[in-house]
Structures
1.
Amino acid sequence: MRNRIVLALGAGLCLAAVPGIFAYARQKNAAPSRQFQKSLSADQRVLQALNRLTFGPRPGDVQEVKSIGLKKWIDRQLHPDDIPENPTLARKLTTLDTLTMSGAELVRNYPTPRMVRQMVDGQLPFPTDPDRKLMLTKLMERFEQRQAKGGDAAAAPAVANAKAMSGLPGPGQLRSLRQGTAQQRLAAFLSLPREKQDDAIAAMPQGLRQGLFVLAPPELRRRIELANGPQQVVARDLTEGKLLRAVYSNRQLDEVLTDFWFNHFNVYLDKGADRYLVTAYERDVIRPHVLGKFKDLLEATAKSPAMLFYLDNWQSVGPDTPRARGRKGGLGGHPGLNENYGRELLELHTLGVDGGYTQADVTAAARCFTGWTILQPERGGEFAFNQRMHDSGEKIFLGVKIPQDGGIADGEKVLDMVARHPATAHFISLKLAMRFVADDPPASLVDRMAETFRKTDGDLRAVTKTMLESREFFSQGAYRAKLKSPLEVVASAVRAVNGEVDYAFPLANQVARLGQPLYRKQEPTGYSNSSREWLNSGGLLARMNFALQLADNKIPGVKVDSSVATIALGSPEFQKR
Amino acid sequence: MPTRRFFLRNSALAMAGAGASPLWLERALCATDGAAAGKKILVAIFQRGAADGLNVVVPHGEKAYYDLRPTIAIPRPTSDPGRKDDAAIDLDGFFGLHPALAPLKPLFDQRHLAIVDAVGSPDPTRSHFDAQDYMESGTPGRKATGDGWMNRALPRAAGKPSPLRAVSLGPVLARSLRGNAPAVAMQTIEDFQVRDRAAAKQFERMYTASTDPLLQAAGRETFEAVAMLQAIQRRPYTPAAGAGYPRGRFGQSLQQIAQLIKSDVGMEMAFADIGGWDHHVNELGARPGEGLLANLLREYGQALSAFWKDMGDRMNDVVVVTMSEFGRTARENGNRGTDHGHANNMFVMGGAVQGGKVYGKWPGLEKEQLWEGRDLALTTDFRDVLGELVSRHLGNAPLGTVFPGYDPKPLGLV
């Protein structure tokens, strides 16, 4: 059954072998730059655009681009608000209710056990939905039962089991739930009265719960996820939302750019309060600005609770401020300066490590941002400027005097200076070109992009457009010259075979297994934009195994038509874009 | 030339990979690479995020240390059993280990663990990314270096080299191991296979026929290594001497390395890393023996100690060396943490290591002794440590290509 290397993966895939040899070469010899002057055929141009502006072509996409006209299609992608969104995507996203919530709402509806305890004790408000309130209260009871049993998680279900199962209507149904086929289990479960269903979920052993999950309609799935641990739902929705958008969105360039800019301004989901802050960060801070002004994007990140928490700035306190003098920090120390954000702002977000700043500039920037903090970070958080934490003294940043008593304007001045710095124009252009054009993009292109950046005051739509309309973008040097990242592999494979995604976190788990856990890059650098990062033996094997699993419909939540499914998805050609 | 990373090696191994290869064949193939036992092996460990060296190897004899860190210093060694778990473990009257590193103390006492202090990269960068890159390329200050020091340090192979002579544990190939000589990355031995035998053959054909030279060579290299690992994957692995690796990726990585060494697959170099050392905030918990740093050090120390136990006599052929991109500020910051600094320490562990000693010249922590007025100064270049291990332990004498433009000065570690 493996003998189905069907090459008819749809015209969109185009497995034609084209020499991408020189594109991989890192050496600065003459050949690559000549390759960036060689033009592509009309068909190659369409494929190049589809491979770079989208998460991979679907069957029929080539025809669509041709009928619209390549130039016009690119222009549409540059104006995503004018593209009607795919109704299928909208429908699938509605079940992921955390994606539209504020941080405070997330904390309230998807709390950690500790937070539920605080709700029960009246220190935190319960969610307004009475069903949700009842469910959380019950979760708490079970959690505390387990705690009382000395944390023996295995023992707890047995107790709860007997209790909950005793409320079931009849022995026949009990048998169906325990031993029936999957469909019988679901039917037996759904025949229970609603109030018994949640008890039954809680009483089920993990295996049974998982068996029910794969068949359950979205609303029931959500209740099962809640029983598994409410706080995990937030992370799950984020990764699912990302995969669903990558696979289904009509605004593909917008999705690729959101991925790029989130990674540029990387934050780490598993760092404390960031668990509840990243949802709004991607939605309200990154996404609205990816084709806007760089300055606005930068300032939005600088004032976002997610970034302030991730790079510790919310706790940074000027020496000799009322806060430093008046209150002891954490466990006995006096709070003071933290230069983590100040450094990464210059090195990773704007100027680049060779952008010509010194340690003194890092310290000066950190002093300017003292007082940029978060109100109640553990409860969803909001940006605030706290004068009592702010270092009011004079600072010299990049040779410019920032006078004393500037307050919040100090940090804003720093953002303004670095957003308009020529080093930033170059650094941002280079990074974009590495993602969209080639690992070593030609300097001529990067220079032109940087020039657009400077002339337009950092208009990212204009910079992106300069790149996507360039000769170098449509050149032999760039064509199929990039190795796909794990996210690109997974999303493009599902798209290539028109996979139907019911729920997407198993796909997100695949992305993690290939080496790119989403929202979980711990370092502020984000994932590398360079192909070579992803080329290694273990990674190749994982890609082959993923292709086999997908083609065999062994990845839960996603269905592919096995008559077109093929191990070509694990082929060398498919690893490139 | 584009194929520089992956050499095409026409070998019997590739044929063996096509079917089930009997164990004797794999052994025989390894044997062409020289006798497995007795071959020297270097294991490098990277602590990513810049470990706070001053709280790992504590200069408890230095008063300034306690002045600079009023809330996050590790207290002086004590014999009081009630406070022992929160105090440094004395090594030599001046330095002490963080209490969470207690499992390593016996190794120091048995002289199998050496520590080099005030060591690191001379480059002044305080960027994690650049500093890691420089340390892994082995060329501080030079960004154009494409390959890593470990790859360059592989001795020229006499005969056919094993496809597993250099192994990087983790989802990506470590920078240290990139380069001309073949090196594989794996998360676990178990995962390193195609789950369907018929499909594996098809993939192998596809990759070896690929017109993309890098993917073609990478595929070939991959399937050679897969063939070699098949026999190991069939045998369950139990660590020797009751060694208990801690849960988590780092413990798992070291266990895989031990398994590979003991399986005699011809491995000469291995790389593993452990992240999470960037402690800008609340480095210590309510007590010095608790908190972020303590938890990480516990995992770290237990893993190294388990590796030692598991390996037994084989440690005579193995040296483990640890590094981190830079140290942290001598003075604590405003949030009971530390910011990016300069010099750090390195651990060197092995049967043949001249251990039980803290090497390196201590520069002191008084204001005028600190580098740029804030960090532990550097008195030993990390290439001195690595260079000695490459030349004396691995026996790869010409260091000019491993650390170009630098002449490592041996410390007498091995």
2.
Amino acid sequence: MKLLRLIPSNTNIDFLSIKKFAFLFSILVISGTFLSLFLNNLNYGIDFKGGILLEVRAKNYEKSNINELRNKVLTLKAGEISIQKFGKEGDYLIRIQKQEGDQKQQIAMIEKVKLLIDNDYSIRRSEFVGPTVGDELKIAGIYAVSLSLLAIMVYIWFRFEWQFSIAAIIALIHDVISTVGLFSFLQLEFNLATIAAILTTAGYSINDTVVIFDRVRENLRRYKSKDHYYIYNKSINETLSRTVITSVTTLIALFIIFFFGGAVLSDFALAMIWGVLIGTFSSIFVAVSILTFFDINKGEKVEDQSNVPEYERDN
Amino acid sequence: MKNSFKIKSFLILMSVLLGVVYAMPNFISISNNNVSYSFLPGKKINLGLDLKGGSYLLLKADMEVVFEEKLQGLLSDIRYSLRKSKIGYKKLIAKKGIVSFEKRGDTPNEKVKSAIIGLNKNLIIDNKNNKFFVNFSDLNKQEITKATMTQAIEIVRRRIDETGTNEPSIQQQGADRIIVQLPGLDDPSRIKKLLGKTAKLNFQLVHPSISSDDIERGSNAPPGYVILEEDKNPSRLYMVNKRVMVSGEMLKDASPTFDRNNSPSVSFQLSPLGGKKFGRVTGQNIGKPFAIILDNKVVSAPVIQSQIFSSGQITGSFSVQETNDLALVLRSGALPAPMIILEERSVGPGLGSDSISSGKIASVAGLIAVMIFMLMTYGIFGIFANIALFCNIIFILALLSLLQATLTLPGIAGIVLTIGMAVDANVLIFERIKEEYKAGREIIDAIESGFQRAISTIVDANLTTLFAALALFSFGSGPIKGFSVTLMIGIITSMFTAIVITKYLVLAYSKKRDMKNYIFQD
């Protein structure tokens, strides 16, 4: 059987030569994110801004009509509402802003909507998040993301040199910011699942970065006579096949969630697909490129070279 | 050497078998739930409310109200203590969380303070000249909160149990919150109504001469009296005596019934002590009205026709459902604090089962697609990786069942994602073996050192990912926690399967055959 080969063996691509273009791209993405955040902000879900969400299914989907439903809900005068199609034909999401007054008014509104559309729709899901909880979740989300970044940074600092940990963390922040940017740009709902997607993306990206760094560290010890530029490029090339194969299997899984995982998970999958792409990019171009700004010590000369094939030994 | 190989084979086989046994209950259909897998030790995976349908409520006890009440209690305690110590005082009031008074005469300040500190040594006492200010310390408040919450959880549980909801879970969260989970219940409006009442029942006398029509809103009540609204008709006011004749704590039982006019009402039974007290007061006040007060609102104010002892009826304009609920909350006792609903999430059974089926499709499709890809890329080695991947899935299911961790919809996404990422460890190993082989090693050597060198990378890479998952776990609200648990389990099992099972398969295979023809073509 002829095996599939995504990356030819013995690639020798000069990745670092396009470092400048890669940086330019990153700067564009990041400044695009801030521009979009400034112009559009984020489309916060009720998890963070509080409010009411109902997922409804028309009892007779052929007769259901989004405008009719909207007009009906508008009669409640509940302030800002949004109604969108969700998944199957006849399924809708109804979002209602948090109500004036105390908690009781909020809870009462859910009942009002239910009563209003009870004849034509069945309620598949109803959610209410009070403003206090929304704020708490926001803070908890920021904490979770910062804490994990910090923990990762410390771990890499211990396992590698400090320069690696700086490079890795910049690459990670780059990923987190650009994923937030995607949500702002496409105005996807930013909710609890998004935080999960961002953190998982960060986990994936750091995984990628660590694999390349591991090789960089090894090659730094092995090729003492070569310059850093050569070693970085070689390390990226040596791990390239693995980088691509793992990205492909992960993307396969994510695309399947995107298409078959149901409407609730599709945004989540989309965020992760973007995250895997940007994470792979940042591991190669951001993390390693940043290493070139440091003068990293090649360490002690390896004394026992018996494990290294003869022609690779350091002379 | 040969023996150790046998032992390894045995151990791996055993661990996989154990995995299969614990994962098994999940593959047996729900219909013969109880009987057919009783021979298996494990349980099914615990599904989250978003998958099996149900309601989640986050409640907060309104402690401000409780502190206010306790402050009133503190005020009477201070009055009692000052009188007992024969200390003159004036302007004793409770306002804005502080009890304040002025002492009369020349009692030493220290003596005043010691009279009060005797009540509770953690109280905070300040004084300015003759003015004294007493309030609760943080420690007092913590104690009050703790006691209130223990009682509140008990009452919430009783009320929910009485509705006959299946396997409700009621837990405290943080200092003053309660999480209520109600599997299978997709419309919690009745529960919310039941928990929305504190259900403090009081019987108090109504002013004998000032009738409802004479009271103007905002007017002052005579000393010892207070103006209360009627529950169903807030415009109707009553002048009610502050002294409580009998309170709900003396209630023994309550049940829905019908009164003489055949309208719904609630009958109640008082405890022996309560009956005695009620009998005495009603006996002295025949012909006068008394008010039945629920949560500071007048339900009705009947005239006492004759002496009433241990049993009576609460009438009002009730519906049958209302009398059912009222009897229920009276039976279960009053909540020590009003409950505020901070968060509510309900999922209907239809959406839950839809999510499960799309989750299943995504998992199986993901598994097959990744397996095909691995086979195409690595040939026979791909088969090894696929066996490891399959074992990995079994281990994940087994661990989820064993730990009784909750599987949520994002959790399913986590499993599918793990399928994609789990092969990474295999890929790292295979690519490394390839490199070592190309570098001129013998095939067996290449395999051995490929594994050895890849392992340190695998551990580094996975541990860092584990940190992200841990952060998610600590962030942990419901579904997200479920996602992080599956992710963590996936990371650990994928490391195990790659390092142990794949290696075992590759080595076992290489012992038997000349690998050169099989390994990676270039």
3.
Amino acid sequence: MSPLQSASSSIAPSLAYRALDVSTGSRQRTPLRFLRRLAAHPRMTVGATIIIVVSALALFAPWIVERPPDIQNVTYRLAPPSSEYWLGGDSYGRDIFSRLLYAGRVSLSVGLLSMILTVVIGVLVGALAGYYGGWIDRILMRLTEIVLVIPTFFLLILTVATFGRSIPLLILIIGVTSWPINARVVRGEIMRLRKYDFVVASRVVGGKDSWIVVRHLLPHLIPIVIASATIRVANNILIESGLSFLGLGVQPPTPTWGNMIAEGTSLMRQAWWLVGIPGATIFVVVLAFNLFGEGLRDFLDPRTRGRTR
Amino acid sequence: MKYWLGRILETIPLLIGVSLLTFAIFRMAPGDPVALVIDPTMVSEEDRQAVREALGLDEPLPVQYVSMMTGLFTGELRSFKSKQPTTEIVMDALPVTIIVGGAGLLIGLIVALPLGTLAARRPGGWVDRLVSLSMTASLAIPSFVLGLVLILLFTERWGMLPGSGIAPIGTIGFAGLESLPYLIMPVAVVAFSPASIFARYLRDALGSVLQDDYVRTARAKGLSETVVFSRHAVRNALLPVVSLLNSLIPITLGGSVVIEMLFGLPGLGRVTTQAALTRDYPVVITAVLFVAAIAVITNLVIDLVYGWVDPRVRVE
């Protein structure tokens, strides 16, 4: 289990109770108290703000930038940041600011969409293994272990080399290879929860397995799943940028933060901003998702509220 | 005895599972695997037939799997490009990956020891905050960005360290001490993340160990804080921290791909990436199997050592 996730599972028990609390007690909260609670969690608020700003910039890129990302202008080849080209020009004289925003569309959607896949598979495998136990659990956990033990980038390279490198394929590949940790977290939670009286009661009155899992168990997992999904986005953005940096991810001329860095590497001596700007962007965005995810976890968990880490 | 044997036997299905998954991914590819494996314009029909034979593609799937695995061990599985047995290629590249990765993990642990201890001695102090900060940063900085920053500073700006390769031009492979400057930056990049994770976990583990009765006893005996830490607390806190290696080894091996490409190190990650870019499929498969086997076996060794050092682990 990764260091990050093991930390999240240790606080999990109380998260489940919090889920109940959110559904019953939220109506009495006033906006002011809500804001005050947000202010008590600066990491979550800072993370969320950065995520919203970056997503908006990427989403509205066509209305924000002055020129499309693929327009080449020799005058601005390797131009330093200026009032005309805010973040400078790249080796083809393209506007780095424009490319950065368009790259954000690709990198963020790959990160988000692959996260959804990761979470769906992780919850499915974890819930099945945790609820049924026995041989289903053994088989699924062995599979989890197998995927986990193959170092991620090698598994990705193998898969990319086999299936190709289009953007939808990359989303699929990153999603399909990164679920094991989420599956383990969900499995642990379900195993703990299924012993509770309300589950036994539901079974006594004739509740079907699928009903018990979907209506009684999964709602308890929502906080922990959301928090870990946020951190997963950060990881998947890092994976995409790494693959694109290797030339095995999204192919130029479609910009992503990773392949912008790859393109700039050979010229970074003359123009550091070619790698510095996309590099800093990845750092800030991934940091924001991590902060938001960790902050959210604390926010939803009454035990860690107010505790400094 | 039961613990050791059980733990060793557990790795066998795991290794078989890894090889099956690798094989399955390769065979799940749409269309003729040979067309996928090799660029039709680059390779003759003879080569295609050789590939079919090497991979046994006319046979039923289980036979194919078995012949791929035997081909791997007998050296019949060959690279499309160099015609060298894939195991040779992989074995040639392996030392670089193991040296850089191993040195990175070791240095990470060595750096983390004093940092984690100091952080635990003064919670909220500046060392503690530094450890938390570097943990946060290490989770957000892609290793290639960190590496590029180092190259930009130490190679381009100050000219202190060579930024690419493993030895001076004209020498092949490791050149003893002369290779050392080439390894400093890659090892530093590898070490950054484990160092912060180890330090952070050591701090947390120390935090809980310090609540234990034997620490109170040691303090009550009048032992100095330094002795309490070095002789009692750190030793016990280190055990769970070292077990982090189980998850850090696959992560480090995976990270080696990007680092080797960036620094031009002739290791397994670079060989695999280049093979993937040229669709040299047998090399990719062999590399994945090797690297997964290394992860499985090192995990086994860690668990065995762990069971030897801490008898509680054996009773489960």
